[in-house]
Amino acid sequence: MSSAEDADPPLTVDAAETPSASFAESPKPPHSAHAARPPLRPAHVIAGVAGVGAVLAAVGIGTVSLLNQPDSTPGEPVTANHITVSTPVPVIPLSDAEIRNLTHRPPDFGALGNASQRASCLAGLGYPAAEEVLGAQPVEVNARPGVLLLVNGDTSDTLVAYAVALNCSAADTGLLATTAIPRA
């Protein structure tokens, strides 16, 4: 066999069958209106640049303010002792001897000078309206103004001192402090 016999015969291509010929004959596809973009306007470009600039400025300012924030270092942890405000125990600001001395001078009723208000106050404290007040004096208990009223105790050898609010009545005595002391 000769090499010429083994060779394939040359191919002949018909012009109608070539791909370029088929494209040339097909019509162009119609232009889609929704795919068309209008040209960029200068106002749109400026607005976009300004928006990006504003975002970058906000991020920059926020970052700087967070980085420059002062450190919070509490000296001590917060406990109930720091939150709760306790008032001192109410105590009559007179000694036993000073309270006993009130029986040796005329009572100073101060704001309780009105006999009917005083009777109402005594009723609120559990005494009859006709109870004899042995001594009285204006006082302050824990920075609250009041009147000290000295009356007989449950036994003949005791005196009871009541510090009451200036508006003491049967409905609300406003009891500031009380103490019982022995008679001398």
UniProtKB/TrEMBL annotation:
Q: Which segments carry the region annotation Disordered?
A: 1-37
Q: Which domain of life is it from?
A: Bacteria
- Annotated transmembrane regions: 45-67
Q: Which UniProt keywords apply?
A: Membrane, Transmembrane, Transmembrane helix
Kindly provide the name given to this protein in its UniProt entry.
DUF732 domain-containing protein
